[in-house]
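Thought: the user wants the 3D structure for the chain below. I'll pass the sequence to the structure tool as-is, report back what it returns, then summarize two notable features.
Action: structure_tool
Action Input:
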Amino acid sequence: MVQRWNPAPERGTADLRQIDLERRFSVRNRILGFTAVAVLYVCALLLLPMTTGAQQRGETPAPPAAGQRGARGPARGAEPTGPPPRDAQGRADLSGMWMSGGPVGQRSDPVPYTPEAQQKVREFQSRQNIDDPMGQCLLVGIPRIYSMPMPFKIIQLPNEVIFVHEAFRGIRVIPTDGRPHPDDIEPAYLGNSVGHWEGDTLVVDVRSFNDRTWLGYGATHHTDKMQITERLTRTGPTTISYEAVITDPGVFTKPWTVRSGFSLRPNERIREYECGENNLEIIKFQELLKKPELFVDPTRLQPRQ
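Observation:
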């Protein structure tokens, strides 16, 4: 039996009236919806100047209700103020999970290079900084390791302070019991550190570096004669101020000071960091070295400050 397609039956007058009523009802609902949205938008515009005015007058908005969440996770109030926490010995406790980026930011004095060291900077820059040891996955030194966008953990014990960095798996164990540098130290990427306390400030003497790190991006090279004095002070419940005075008679005409700050990041954790896996930068650098026409004449460059 052959099935034939039958068109829909013709609608009567009652059906057409029903369809017309449904269309009118749908249009009315849409108009009401658009009106409601417009009213809400106007209310928001009217409330915005009131909120802004309150902030300009210094009024503190009401804190969010318990359990309320912000647009980017749990709501965070103002940074806590007050004295820093203290350990069992009464010292300011540096322990915690930290990241670079305190309220002071990172700044430094101009790099006081000798003329010979400035020429070396120009040569590195003419090669597009492909000589940066970090590009070869070598452990970055001090103070550069603090500027990595990864957390680090400080563990303060009675006779030593331990730094565990996610970046390049850097670890420092700094004795604070008055012992000197050992006699058999060898040149290292992070040098050798001994520390002592001056009030609430941890003062660290670092020496015995190798010359295979840069102090920061931009060809800030150094020699194995470099020595660094670090000063870490916990200035509040969530902040540490950091200062490093760097001396290197091999490249500097005078000590160079770098200042920055650390912020507490209790919700961070140390993750696995593997720089060497699938590192294509080394291959790219080797290929670039075969094309000297890509490099700039070093006499045309000025050292970065």
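Final Answer: Structure generated. Residues 1-32, 37-76 have pLDDT under 50 and may be disordered. The CA atoms of residues 30 and 36 lie 10 Å apart.
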